Each structure stands twice: as C-alpha cells, then as structure tokens.
Amino acid sequence: MAIRMPHIIQARKILKRSLSNGSTTPASMDIPKGYFAIYVGEQEKKRFVVSVSLLSEPTFQELLHQAEEEFGYNHPMGGLTIPCSEDVFTDLASRLGAF
User: Fold this and answer.
1) 29-50: average pLDDT
2) CA–CA distance, 33 with 4 (Å, rounded to integer)
3) Per-domain residue ranges for the chain?
4) Kind and range of the H or E element at 21?
C-alpha cells in the first residue's frame, strides 16, 4: 500500500499557513500536540480537532484532494476546510479512529 505523499505535504503547507498567521486565538490554543483543527460542513462549518494520523489515511487524503480542488490554498475559515457533510465526516473519522 503506497501513501500519496503530495497530499500529506499539501496538508502540512495549509496547516502551517493557517497556524502561522501571527495571531494566537483561544481556539488555536486548545489543540493538543499531535492533533489539528479542521472545519467541516456544507452550509455552516463545524470545527473538529482530529489526530494527525488521519493524514496518512487514503480516504482522508481523497477529502484533502477535494478540498484542494474547491478551495485551493484559500480556506475561508482560516484553517483546513473539508467540503463534505458533517455526517459523512463524523462517520469516516470515527471509523478511522480520528477522535
């Protein structure tokens, strides 16, 4: 099984940009080491804090690819935004043990 490294590298670039904007907000302070915040939802976005181990999962990498196609590197929420329904994401993340 091969891991598609470009998607992981792209996700890291997005995370570095969103976390290095110079401001330290209370929302960014509550993320434990080894986790990152993402925003999920079709209309209203909900914030989730998930394990970085999720980045190596092929199904999550596919979601990252969709996010890249829809948003490029301009994520409107200031963090990584995933373009899928909250129900689909929570089902996928729970199956992968991301929470």
Assistant:
1) 86
2) 24
3) 35-96
4) none
